[in-house]
Amino acid sequence: MKSQYIGILIMSAVLAGCGGSVSVTDPLATAPKVIIDSDFNTMGDDGQLFAMTTQLMGEGKVNLLGLCVVTGNDWLIQEEADALKAVERMGVQNVVGVYGGADYPLQYNLASIRAQQAANPQGYFGAWSRPEPTEQSQLVAPSDGFAVSTKLQAQSAADFMIQTIKRYPNQVTILEVGPPTNLATAIMKAPEIVPLIKQIVYMGGAMAVPGNANAVAELNWWFDPLAVRTVLQTTIPQSDIPLDVTNTVPLTQTVYNEIVNNPNKQTAVTKAYAVANAGAFAENTDLYDTLTIAYFMDPTYATQTKSAYLDIDTTAGEDQGHVTVYPDQPASGASPQKITYVTQFDNNRFFSLYVDLLTRPVPITLP
Question: Would you say the pTM of this structure is higher than 0.90?
Fold first, then answer.
């Protein structure tokens, strides 16, 4: 991509020297701007979201400004390695930087976490379910290997968010698909960015269904409920894809086969998808983070929504991460404005988009 721009600039200089003139513009300048803030994985829901978003970037429909990473599904150092490979796999390593963020939640009680794990043996507790790696030799390589040359950006995820939001006031949407520790850190460090953020689209929380971590909480919001509460209490426009709707969007064998077993559409993405999701449909796996990009591009993918004031329990224990929904009047500590959350999705339309974007040629061609 950089070489393309250099070529354009050289041609501009030549034409200018000959008495001609051209206008050099970024082909993505007018595309909706997003930052993905993710507890990244190779080709689970976070990796799928990244592949889909970069394919839309190739169409000029979205401008992905950066990929921020936070501990959640796995520990930060493992997620960073997966994310660095992902940008190389998609061919966007020169235009989409990977920014390392928070290794731990803003607030956590390890004894309580262990007690919750014991009380909820079928619960999903992400990084807390495995030892934290401390060096590269302990990392698990993606199925197609580690990144060859791409390095982590020196700037932290929170600082990148602050700088980028100030650079593009009222233009940046945050796709918040992990614990929002990085975003909360940015807001606490630079509260002046709050009125400059266009919107947040989350995948997180459980409004009226059981949790997938402890009995009442979804992992992303359970992992750092204080960060969630910090962001909910701002005036940033926010919408959410909660567990309530993701529970109704299952990965079926048919969809899996359409992505993995089409002989005419074998790519690095479909091969990594096959490894990461083999048998997932047999385990009643649902789709999560990928719904955010569809909803962001076109909110009519949501066929039913509700709006309410939201609060979250930040105390350690079996109520950690529990979301309280106030349909009419907010209680003290709840969000100061109503937040829209999705309760029903257009599955057929979504799966058409999902399969299409995940089976397109790789690496992408940028406009």
Answer: yes
